[in-house]
Amino acid sequence: MESSKSIPTSLLLLLAIIFSINYSACLADPDPLHDFCVANLDSTKITVNGFPCKPASAVVSDDFFFSGLATGGDTSGMFGSNITQASVASFPGLNTLGLSMNRADFAPGGVNPLHSHPRATELVFVLEGELLVGFVSTANVFYSKVVKAGENFVIPRGLVHFQYNAGKVNARAMTVFNSQLPGVVLAPLGLFGSKPAIPDEVLAKTFQVDNNVIDLLKSKFGN
Ligand SMILES: *[C@@H]1O[C@H](CO)[C@@H](O)[C@H](O)[C@H]1NC(C)=O
């Protein structure tokens, strides 16, 4: 009562609006409504924002355990990198908890190609070797840094970014996301490998090149 007399209502309202704007801007996935909601990934009858919960009586300790990041994937593919994911899709215990993690392995010269995560900010922690990590802001400013073992770099939600192993030895990083399923839009595949393909005319005009350049790029990504 005291405070509502001394602070004008309009100021309180303004503060409430400022607080709610800032608050919602740093949220990713919605808050859970239960202690846990281990995903039933096989549910076809019910679709919700996320996955329906397995009955609590059927939940076991192993639902909260995942060993899939203990080993890295094969880095001999075209990009010289391999991303192993611990998202809700492979680790159902993460459902509704608002976070997930990837392991990224890189051969020398390997790249996790330009991509973005529509639903999450990404915190990159380098465990081994060193990576050039960079993102581009909506103002087209390129921010980047060589990140060494034990160091972090953060990539704001939704922005296009990459990690590149410019070193002479293998590199390894863990990446943490504030979403159970951050989603990934991989620029080369999205632009040149989509099914069905984006028309050549659109890509040629977009990149200001001839159709044969577009056809060459499409041929690299299965189109
Ligand atoms: C990543 O590694 C796994 C396991 O070694 C392999 O099956 C998969 O094809 C690799 N992915 C890429 C993109 O090279």
Automatic annotation (TrEMBL):
Indicate which residues the UniProt annotation says bind oxalate. Answer: 102, 112, 117, 122
SMART domains recorded for this chain?
Cupin_1
PROSITE patterns, per this entry? GERMIN
Q: Which SUPFAM superfamilies match?
A: RmlC-like cupins
Its localization reads: Secreted, Extracellular space, Apoplast
Query: What is the protein's major site of localization?
Result: secreted
Molecular-function GO term, any one: oxidoreductase activity
Which cysteine pairs are covalently linked by disulfides here?
A: 37-53
Residues of the signal peptide:
1-28
Cellular component terms (Gene Ontology): apoplast
Matching Pfam families, A to Z?
Cupin_1
Per UniProt, which keywords does this protein have? Apoplast, Disulfide bond, Manganese, Metal-binding, Oxidoreductase, Secreted, Signal
Q: Where on this chain does Mn(2+) bind? A: 115, 117, 122, 161
Could you tell me which residue ranges the Cupin type-1 domain spans?
A: 67-215
Similarity comment: Belongs to the germin family.
Matching PANTHER family, A to Z? GERMIN-LIKE PROTEIN SUBFAMILY 3 MEMBER 3
Q: What is this protein called?
A: Germin-like protein
